[in-house]
Structure formats: structure tokens, C-alpha cells
Amino acid sequence: MSEEREQEAAARSAADVAAMLIELGRAVKACHFYASDHPARKATLERSFRAFESTLARAGALELDVSAGALHVGGGDPIGRGSLDELVRALIERGVRCLRFEPGLEHDAFVQLVAVLTLDPDELGDAGGVKGALAAAGAGVRVNEPGTEEAAVADAVDAEVASASPVPAEPAADDDRDLPAPKVQTTDADPLTRLDGLLHEKATEVEDGTLAPQAAPEPGADLVACLRSLDECRDEARYAELLQRVAVSLDELEGPSAGDEPYRAILVLCSHAMEGSRSERQRLLAEEALFHVAAGPRLADLVLRACADGTAGSVRATQILLHLGAHAVPHLLDALLAADDPERRGRLNAVVIAMGEKTAPVLKEALDVNDPQRARLAARLAGELQNPELITYLRGILREAEAPDELQREVAKALARIGNAAATQVLIESLSHPSADVAAGVAHSMGGVANAKVVEGLVGALRRALRDDELELARESIRALGRVGRAEAVPTLAAILERRSWIGRKRLRELKLAAAAALGRLPGDEAHQILERCAQARGDAQVRRAAQTALASRP
Fold first, then answer.
1. Residue 100, beta-bridge partner list
2. Residue 202 lies in a domain
3. Which residues are CB-neighbours of 537 under 8 A, at least 6 positions away?
4. DSSP 295-340
5. Is the torsion defined by CA of 537, 541, 544, 549 positive or negative?
6. What is the pTM of this model?
7. 123 occurs within a structural domain
8. pLDDT tens digit string along 267-295?
9. How many angstroms separate the CA atoms of 128 and 120, rounded?
10. Residue 79 sits in which domain range?
11. Half-sphere exposure of residue 136, counting CA atoms within 13 Å on the CB side?
């Protein structure tokens, strides 16, 4: 060993070298899985480069030779046997016999080296080999340099590699072990990604007579292996076994340390459940497993991802929630109740609405007067969904004596949004609600339902309100008649304008002002003529000005 190499070995331990090379292997894996512009790929490359940069700056150049199916420093013992097999294989396949990293390693040179180790060996040969591909990439990486000891014995190395223990062959697709990273992602499930950290290992090395402890396997490694095998598996019996292993691996990953692994599993299972090329049996198995896995904290995480700001991942998470349907609705309701951000509420609301009829069973259950806040949310969603199936349950809340007024007013709005004959009939019945506040709220809601039946109900409510001195119900009935916009209401509103006395002058004025504004919204010559007379009549100046304003605003 040269003096330079002896100094190098003294400054850098075998464990340091193994850690650097594991970072290089991790970067290669990331480039296999991530698109070139993916943030996780860039982050992994940056982290691996920094690990090389700092160690090279501290301990000087690192020269490695590839022989006997392993990596060596200065002809010493193999570095990272087992944990670096994939990296060794990639180097050998591309003809790398000696690899030297200089302290001035440039970022572009490191990134290009990683890219070279992901290229197909044949394509790399057409591009002039590793040296040709790295020639203009930047300083700091030297490969198979002439004159080095390794280049001089290249032929001997080749013979040694051929006769030595071979690099382990890639396992079959259904093997229980972790699989090497495929060059083509086999599903469109984004999270067979983020490999940085999944296969993190530290080599067991002998240093100064002390055996360094080998780190435990990274959490999630077995799950990733199962998912890869599952993705390639077409045998139904084997597929069922792998699903069981996935469930066990996920149970072992509960808690903050689980990271992205549960989401990765959910994406793969959902993809399989909808994948037309799979057998019906496998799709059913995947569907069953998906509903089992996507629950509790994992479902909560899925909802958070669906609400992420403008990412492809949020679209995929939303698609999974839509596939889960009613299974996901209770948690979506919880998230809506807890959401403070309007944008987040809007996204959650959109997901629930997109589920359509799937939400009905959950909304029925949520329409419970014992939980008014959740029931109000369910009533609002029922109105936005315009699902007639929920009318009976909404009517029950309006008839429930213990239901809060605020909840009952929300129910009235929902019925008005549904707006069919059955919903209209419930609203008309509720105009006689014992609570004057609720009855007024019902009248207000009915302004959005434009049919003759609604006019008839509001006219009847107005007459009762005038008789019973219920100012709020009378005012809301008048305003609602204006919003309905049907000519049938003209005589009733004209009678209000022509009324001479009713309890108190101030109250009567409020109703006349409301009637003038309502007539301004109604079609036909009769409404126009009534307003003209009122605008010219002597008497209350405020009512006269209201009639003039209504005339000016008529279409």
C-alpha cells in the first residue's frame, strides 16, 4: 500500500467509507424511482453529495477498486459486503474497475455519476462508456484512470470477478426479500418512491479489534419488499399471502415512525382494486385490504394529503377517497368540523359532494339532534347534494321539539335546496312551527323555491302572521314572495301597501317597505301600476320613496 493510501486509510475508517457508499447507492435507487424533476429525487441527491463533500474535505481523496464482487480500499477487506451488492453490480455492469473521488468533487460530477449508474449498460457503451459520459460533467470523479494500480491489473480483476463469488442474482418477483429497485415503475402509485432512508444500513466492520454493532433494518423495508412483490404477483394464492404480510408490516409501523409507508400501501392497493388487467379475485382481495388499511390515523393522513395545495399527490389522494366512498365520509365530516381554513374546508366539501349518493347513509346517521354541530353540517351537505332520500330525516328534525332553532333553520335551507314537491310540502308545513324564529327562517328559505305551491304557502303564512302579530314571520314571508318572483303574489303584496292600520304605524311601515321592494321584483303590468300609484300617493314619504326605487329597479 502506498504512503498516500496509508494516510488516507488512517484518516477515514471503514465505517466512514461504507456510509459514503450507502449514500451513493441510495442516490442511485432514488434516480430509478423518481422522475428527473421530482423534489424527493433532488433532495436525495443533494444529501448524498453533501455526505461525500464533507468526508472528502475532512479525510482527503477516496480511491476504490472493484474486484471479487466487492468494493475495496487499498486492497483491504471488502467494504459493506451485502449492503452494497446492488451498487457493486451497477459498477461491474458498466465496466468500472477503479473509482476515485477527489476533495474538490463538484456537484454536477456527482449527479452525472449517479445518472451513469442508472443507464442501461448497452446505452452507456454507445455513449462512450463511463469515462465518456463523465468527461464533461465536472471535476472530482476519476474512473479507470491509466497508470493506476487498478488499471494495470484490469484483466486479472476480470478473471478474479469471474471466478469469485458472484454478486447475488436479483430475486424472483414473489421472493420474500426486498427487491432491487426496478428501472420502470410498475404502477402509477407515486409512493413507491421516497426510498431515501428505506434501506438505510450500516455495515458491520472490524476496526481496531472491535466489532461495531450492525444497525437494525430500517422500518418499512419489509413492507416495500411486499408491495413490490405484490405488484408483480399474478398468482391468487400467493397474492393473498402477500396481502397478509402487508397488513402485518403496517401494524408494526403504527405511530410517528410510520412515515409515508401506509400511504404507499394504500395507493398500491387502490391501484390494484381498479386495475383491469388483474383477475376479479385479485381486485376483490385488493379492495377488501384497502378498506381494512385505510382506517383511523391512515385515513386521517389520506385526508390531509387530499387537502394539500395544488399537487399531483393531492389529486391521487382525492381519487382514493372517492373510491372509498361512504367508508371515508365520517372522517371527512370530522375534518370539516375541525377545519379553520376556508380553502381547506372548500376542498373537503368538494370531496364529499363528489361522492354523491354514497354519502347518504352517513348523513342519515349524522342528522342527530344530540350532536347539533355535526347535524348542522350534515343538513348543509344534504342540501348541497340535493338528495331526496334525506327528506324524511330532515323533516324529522323540524318536528323534533328538542332540536336547536339554529339546526332547524339549517334543515329548512337544505329542504329549499332540494326543492322538489316533497321538500316543498315539508317547508309549507313548517311555516306553522311553534318557534317564531324557526318559522321565519323557513319562510326566508322558501324564497329560493320558485313554484306556485310555495306562493300559496307563503301567502297563508303572511295572513296568519298579520293576524297573530308576528312581525318577523310577516316580513320574511313578504321578502320571500318577492324572491320567488311569481305574479300570483301581486294581490297580497298590494293589499299590504294599501293597508291603513295594523297594531302600530312603525311596524306597518316596515311591512310596506318590504312589500314595495318585493313588488319591484315581480313580473307583469299589475305590479308596475301598483308601484306607480304608491310612488305618487300622499302619505308616508318613506314608503313613497321605496316605491320609486322599486320602479327604477324593475327590469
1. 63, 142
2. no
3. 544
4. -THHHHHHHHHHTSSS-HHHHHHHHHHHHHGGGTHHHHHHHHHH--
5. positive
6. 0.57
7. yes
8. 999 999 998 889 999 999 999 999 999 98
9. 13
10. 3-167
11. 2
